[in-house]
Design goal:
Layout lengths: L1 E4 L2 E6 L11 E5 L10 H8 L4 E6 L14 H14 L5 E6 L1 H12 L4 E7 L9 H9 L1 H12 L16 H11 L4 H11 L3 H7 L4 E6 L11 H14 L5 E5 L6 H4 L1 H11 L1
Parallel strand pairs: 3-4, 3-5, 5-6, 6-7, 7-8
Antiparallel strand pairs: 1-2, 2-4
Length: about 270
């Protein structure tokens, strides 16, 4: 689906079905140096089972125009504008890594528009190591390799190669290579600088789901504890259901590809 957000061309994958804003809407937000395709398996299923789906390409990523946005807060504003531009008034927002920070910031900024947030492979603070920031600035190819080795729990065995001729590792490497130069540095700086996660989680007025990879080296399970506690405080204050936490055994940071069925099962139950 091609449309305009604030006058700039934008793209959202709708799961093989025409977007219908009258149906319950699920918005998928990718992480750093990625695009909508990381959600292909989950978004397509939900689109064919009673939901409308917008798997967004953030500005300067994938098929969306414009320049990459420099802060998580401004990315959240853009996602909310995209939701309105598509004609939907309310949605569950699912975000991976950087996208999870965007999702919780959306919940703070527009509680009336956010029915729930699913935070996948999340952490707060989401600090980026000096070595990885330097590589992103000086040699993106090295940074891509570092990310891939740290993002996948299995490189030379299942689920790294779930079938002959297929490699999750190289699939992700190629996806990162498709993005525009310097996008990774922009995204990492945004994650590293974002300081409002706990305040946003405490201010949220919607149900929350955490989907975490037990073998995640990029955003370890323990790094989500602050956000989980903050969402729990918010739920108690607003008499909402406490946040649900799903830890997927053996999954790394790229858990949508490594454990697609388990991620989908948790999301389908939540949305």
């Amino acid at each position: 689906m091609r449309f305009e957000v604030d006058g700039i061309p934008a793209y959202a994958y709708t799961g093989g079905r025409a977007f219908d804003p009258s149906l319950p809407t699920v918005v998928f937000v990718h992480g750093a140096q990625h695009d909508h395709s990381v959600w292909i398996l989950q978004s397509r299923y939900l689109a064919h089972h009673g939901r409308s789906v917008l798997a967004l390409d953030l500005p300067g990523h994938g098929r969306s125009g414009g320049e990459p946005i420099a802060t998580v807060e401004a990315m959240a504003d853009w996602v909310l504008s995209a939701l309105a531009a598509a004609g939907a008034s309310r949605a569950t927002i699912v975000g991976h890594s950087m996208g999870s920070l965007i999702a919780v910031e959306c919940a703070r900024r527009a509680p009336q528009a956010v029915a729930g947030v699913a935070l996948v492979g999340t952490a707060f603070p989401m600090k980026v190591s000096d070595a990885l920031l330097q590589a992103a600035a000086d040699d993106e190819a090295i940074a891509f390799d570092m990310i891939n080795y740290w993002s996948h729990s299995g490189i030379t065995h299942h689920p790294g190669t779930p079938g002959p001729g297929f490699s999750i590792f190289w699939e992700n490497r190629r996806l990162m290579e498709r993005q525009r130069p310097r996008t990774l540095l922009n995204d990492f700086r945004a994650c590293d600088a974002y300081s409002g996660g706990l305040d946003a989680a405490r201010a949220s007025q919607c149900p929350a789901l955490f989907i975490l990879g037990q073998a995640d080296a990029m955003t370890p399970v323990r790094a989500a504890n602050g956000l989980i506690d903050a969402c729990r405080e918010a739920a108690e204050h607003h008499r909402e259901t406490p946040p649900e936490v799903v830890v997927i055994p053996g999954a790394g940071h790229a858990l949508m590809a490594e454990r697609p069925d388990e991620v989908l099962e948790a999301l389908e139950r939540f949305v």
